[in-house]
Design brief:
GMP Synthetase, Chain A, domain 3; alpha+beta; binds zinc ion; two-stranded antiparallel ribbon
């Protein structure tokens, strides 16, 4: 190293590492493009890095109208937002999802975003569909502002794996045990995974079953019911602390023409409350895994 270079070397040594990195990134010729990409992802914490190319070709003439290659990007990749709905995974994408969902649900309740204002007077039910218990998990419960013991049981009572069945801790909100099974071997992980895997199918069947039950409660065939009432659904899937999906949903009754038409008088809130609980209880999805697990 020459004596001329030494002061430079010493200077960068004295600067914090992040500052050196920052200076390098900002002075990079590809910085502006990189910044534009990061901005386009909305500041996603874990963007997906895509590599490849796309061509738009005129099918008749074979002429290439537009081409794009990630190889031409400064980093050789295209950044795309991860779209994750969990704030713990990506604060930015989950916030976008939350805000979008809020607007959609709000429009479904009170109109807006292409939904007529009249819907605010239509009968609707707010429903929460939750997974069954797959075994006890650590919880934080408060009563009158006091944190209670997680799962008070006799202290000497143990499960078949020799672990205490209770937990006398008063968990802090940040306790990593919250949502974790009290005994991992007792916990029905297979059931939990199957619930998660079939949550979409369960939801779909719920919508069919609600329509069927509404019709039978109204004393009509499904066909006749559908001529008079349209049933609209809006749902938000959320992860509970125990990691399972649950749904918050709005079920709304409209006239046959949709949100701009009021439904007949008999299609009221009472009809919804009579139809939804039995419909929920009737929804099942059989899975090959569950059948074989029971059969063994
Ligand atoms: Zn993201
Ligand atoms: Zn506990
Ligand atoms: Zn156990």
């Amino acid at each position: 190293m020459t004596s001329k270079e030494e002061p430079q070397h010493r200077t960068s040594d004295q600067q914090p590492e992040w500052l050196v990195d920052l200076a390098r990134v900002i002075n990079d010729p590809g910085y502006e493009r990189w910044r534009a990409m990061v901005t386009a992802t909305g500041g996603c914490a874990h963007p997906v890095h895509l590599a490849g190319e796309s061509l738009i070709v005129n099918a008749a003439s074979g002429e290439v109208l537009h081409s794009y290659r990630t190889a031409d990007e400064p980093s050789g990749r295209l950044l795309v937002a991860c779209g994750n709905r969990r704030a713990s995974v990506c604060p930015s994408c989950s916030e976008v999802y939350r805000a979008d969902t809020f607007q959609l649900i709000r429009a479904g309740l009170s109109g807006g975003k292409g939904v007529p204002q009249e819907v605010s007077a239509h009968p609707r039910a707010f429903v929460t569909l939750t997974a069954p218990s797959f075994g006890p998990v650590h919880t934080r419960r408060e009563k009158n502002g006091t944190v209670r013991a997680c799962r008070p049981r006799k202290r000497d009572k143990v499960c078949e794996h020799g672990r205490p069945v209770g937990c006398h801790a008063h968990h802090e909100p940040t306790d990593e045990r919250l949502g974790q099974p009290v005994c991992g071997d007792c916990y029905d992980y297979v059931g939990a995974v199957l619930w998660q895997a079939h949550a979409g199918a369960l939801w779909h069947r719920f919508t069919l079953e609600v329509r069927r039950t509404l019709a039978s409660e109204a004393g009509l065939s499904r066909r006749e019911f559908a001529k008079r009432v349209r049933v609209s659904f809006a749902k938000v899937a959320e992860y509970q602390r125990r990691g399972l999906v649950h749904f918050h949903a709005i079920v709304r009754l409209d006239g046959p023409g949709g949100g701009s038409e009021i439904p007949p008088d008999w299609a009221d809130h009472d009809l919804l409350t009579r139809a939804i609980p039995p419909a929920v209880r009737r929804v099942t999805v059989a899975s090959p895994q569950a059948i074989s697990a029971d059969g063994i």
